[in-house]
Amino acid sequence: MSLLKILHYPDPRLKKVAAPVTKFDNALRALVADMADTMYAAPGIGLAATQVDCHLRIVVIDVSEERNSLLILINAKIVRKDGLQVFEEGCLSVPGIYEKVERAEEITVEYFDLAGNAQTLTASGLLAVCIQHELDHLEGKVFVDYLSQLKQMRIKAKLLKHARADM
Ligand code: K2U
Ligand code: ZN
Q1: Whose CA is nearest to atom 18 of ligand 1?
Q2: Which residue, by CA, sits nearest to atom 14 of ligand 1?
Q3: Partners of residue 106 on adjacent β-strands
Q4: Mutation choice for ligand 1 from 5, 14, 45, 47, CB with most ligand atoms inside 8 A
Q5: Contacts with 119 (C-beta within 8 Å, 6 or more apart), sequence order
Q6: What is the pTM of this model?
Q7: Phi and psi, residue 118, nearest 5°
Q8: Dihedrals phi, psi of 119, to nearest 5 degrees
Q9: What is the distance between the alpha carbons of residues 73 and 84, in angstroms, rounded to a whole number?
């Protein structure tokens, strides 16, 4: 079990765009295991590789009550979006900040599983929000980017002040 360091906003590495996974090997399996350990320990219901400074298109998610239904999305792409929903989001990279974000209510996602098999998933509700939130991370986007410039400035100032206090 290895816990990885989660980058905190406004770290510029959170803005990097992740590259596709090309090797479905033991190194990938080890990274996914560490990401899952890190997500469960945080605790969170999702984690993107970008957040642990690994810029590959990998996301782990578990929205189950029992915390025993790990979903691994590799090279995921949203191919259909329907409806709208508003959810008060948080983020392991933006500790202590919760803001409403509008996203698609239902999505269809094409991705590869850990064995390299192509899969398709249709999700709605919290799972749809989480998948969209995590795939944003792989594009270098954090949920605060949807907020007003004033709110973004205030959040940046607050988190930078906390970071200095922790030094
Ligand atoms: O990307 C992350 O930081 C993981 C988020 C995923 C998430 C954000 C907003 C909405 C749904 C999922 C963390 O899990 S934030 C913690 C959390 C926990 C339970 C429910 C919602 C958010
Ligand atoms: Zn996040």
Answers
A1: 44
A2: 44
A3: 82, 124
A4: 45
A5: 110, 111, 112, 113
A6: 0.96
A7: -70, 135
A8: -135, 160
A9: 22
